[in-house]
Amino acid sequence: MLKLDTMAARILIVDDEVAQMEALCRTLGEHGYVTTGFSSARAALAAVEEAKFDLLVADLMMPELDGIALLRALRSKDPDLVGVIMTGEGSIDTAVEAMKAGALDYILKPFRLSVILPVLSRALSVRRLHQENALLERRIRERTEELEAANKELEAFSSSVSHDLRAPLRHILGFLGFALEASGERLPPAARQDLESAVTAARKMDQLISDLLAYSKTGRVGLKAGPVELGDLVAEVIQEIGPDTAGRAVEWQVPPLPTVWGDRSLLRQVFVNLLGNALKFTRPRSPAVIELKSRPVAEGLEVRVRDNGVGFDQRFADRLFGAFQRLHSADQFEGNGIGLANVHRIIHRHGGRVWADSKLGEWAEFGVLLPRPPDL
């Protein structure tokens, strides 16, 4: 952190009354400040080209350049400079004008040391705070840029690796399938089971690669926002995942849904994941009940997907939206923990938010907030 040693602060004192300027330089010097005095405002202005000061103490009324104009000129060269204006007038208008020019405070003539020293100490503290804030903002900006660069590299790496893995994996799946088909009934049951297990594992890996590619893509593609008929989109998704309902009693409760604003293809991914999850985690229920609800709120539109499935422990709700985070074992329910991470990323890119509520063993509800559209 930047630190300013108050006892070694450099003070520029400008007053056309020479005796008063010298007295103030001497007095403040005795209290540990490093002082430089000028009776000419223009000479003081020239001095800052070669020397740096922490604080300006300038008289308001001077013939060449008044204290406010001098402060403005000096702050154009050094925005961190803190100014204190001296005046014998003591009017409110003077104080307001000085503050508008960037002065932190003003002091009245004739001087009293008990008044000046606290004013200077406060001014230097403000300067130190400004410098520390500037340093912190710069570090945050640099760190943000580093994180953005690292995320782009990670996404590019994920995409590249996923593409490179996909081709050999497809070959593996092809050869395994060919081996199973060609061997017919000649394979011993144990060997056939091993091959079938290998096929299952390869297909899981293929799905993981697909999910990684989708996750990487959602962070890189530009948003193509426009009006989206949410009711039509949800109907498409329900029809798409319809084969997963074969042999099951599933009750969809979908009210009329409004038009929203967003990227249709990305929002489609959101509801593929939310409705697909609801269908998956209601597998032990008969009937499975999956309900959609929407309501306008101040920030935009809330859409909730609620089901009567197995639920989850509410204490771990925040973990659900992280990549590869799962609250159920793969033996119970298939998946790799990418789906909800995609939901989070897509909704965040739309400027919204996500959340999850549940009662373990009874129900789960996932909500997304879509910000208010610009002109709908």
Please tell me about this protein's structure:
The chain has 376 residues and is α/β, with parallel strands linked by helices. The chain has 3 domains: 6-111, Response regulator (Rossmann fold, 3-Layer(aba) Sandwich), CATH 3.40.50.2300; 154-220, Helix Hairpins, CATH 1.10.287; 225-371, Histidine kinase-like ATPase, C-terminal domain (Heat Shock Protein 90), CATH 3.30.565. 49% of the residues lie in helices and 20% in strands. The strands form 3 sheets. Strands 2-1-3-4-5 form a 5-stranded parallel beta sheet, sandwiched between helices. It has a 5-stranded mixed beta sheet with strand order 7-9-10-12-11, covered by helices on one side. The longest helix has 71 residues, at 113-183. The two termini are 48 Å apart.
Strand % is 15-25%
How would you name the CATH homologous superfamily of the largest domain?
A: Histidine kinase-like ATPase, C-terminal domain
> What average pLDDT do the residues reach?
82
Global Rg = 35 Å
Ends distance: 48 Å
If you consult CATH, what is the topology of the largest domain?
Heat Shock Protein 90
Order of helices and strands: EHEHEHEHEHHEHEEHEEHEE
Coarse shape: elongated
Helix count from the secondary structure assignment: 9
Number of domains as seen in the coordinates: 3
Which secondary-structure class do the elements indicate? Answer: alpha/beta
Give the % helix. 40-55%
**Largest β-sheet summary:** 5 strands, parallel
- What is the annotated CATH architecture of the largest domain? 2-Layer Sandwich
Low-confidence stretches: 1-7
Secondary structure: number of strands: 12
Strand order of the largest sheet: 2-1-3-4-5
CATH class annotation of the largest domain: Alpha Beta
